[in-house]
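Take a minute with the sequence and C-alpha cells given here and flag any C-alpha cell that looks odd. Thanks in advance.
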Amino acid sequence: MAEETVVQHSVENDEEEGLWEGGKTPFKISYGKLMMWYFLLSDAFTFSGFLIAYGALRFSMPTWPVPDFVFQTAPFNNLGLGHETGLPLIFVTFMSFLLIASSITMVRAVQEGHRENKRGVVFWMLLTIIGGLGFLGCQAWEWTNLIKVEHMSLTIDPFSNHLDDGVYLTADGSATGEAFEAGTPYLIHKIGASHGADDHSEGPHYSEPGDYPDAYVDDKGYIHKKFLLTSGPNEGALTYEEFGPKAFGALFFFITGFHGFHVFSGVIFLLIIMINAASGLYVARKNGYEMVEKIGLYWHFVDLVWVFVFLVFYLL
C-alpha cells in the first residue's frame, strides 16, 4: 500500500511538472539548429570525399607540383615579400588569417546576441562580413594569377618537378646550362609570358617559337625547356620539361572553388541576417538571436573546412 502511494505521488508530481505533456525536445535544441547540424554533417561528408580523392591521386603520382613553388607569388611581392625572401605561402597565410579572424568576430556576434545587444550583434557581424569579403578577394586574385599569369587550367598543369638529375641546354645546343637535381620544381612558360632565370621574375617577353632555340614549343604555345639527363636509367638522354599531372589543376579549382562558394553564400546570409538584426526583427523573439547563432555554426564550419583545404593543397 505504501509503495502504491509513493508511485502515485511520483506520477502526480511528474504531471505537475509537465514531463508527460509532450512537445519538448529532449536535447534542449531548437528544430532550426538541429537541421543546421544535419546539413553541416552532410556537407562534411562531401568535403571529406573530395579531399580523400585528392589525396589518393596525389600519392599515386610519381611527380606532383611543389606547393612552396606553385603558391609563392603575391600582389605585394614588389615590397620585398614572398619568394624573394624565402617566404613561400605568405599570401595564402594572409588569406587564412582573414578567415580565422572572421570566425572570432562571429563568436563575438553570437555572444552579444545572447545578451540581447542589438548594436553589438550588428557591429561584430559587419566585421565578419568584411573578413569574408577579404578572403574572397584574395582567392579571386590567386585564381587570376594562376590562370592568366601561370596559365594553369582544368586540363593543363604547367607546374611539375624533375624525376632525375640533369642539366639544361644552352641556346647553342650545348649541355652547359643550369644543372638541377631530382625534385627541383619548374614552371612551363607560355609564349608572351616572362621568361627569366627565376620563373616568377621579370624578364624579356618573347612572341615567336623561334625565339627559343634551347626549348621545344608545343602547338599551344607552351615552352618546354630541353635538358640532358645526368642520372637515372635514361642517363645521357635528351628530353624536355613535361606538364605536371592534369588532375592537379582540376582538383584545385574545383575544391577551392566549392569552398569559395560556401564562403560567398555565407557572406550573403550574414548580410541578410545583419540587416534583419539591425531592423529589430529579432528583438521581439527574445531567444538570444538564435538566427545569428545558426549562421555562426555555418561560418565556423566553413573556417574549419578551410584548415583541411589549406593542409592538403598548400602544405603537403
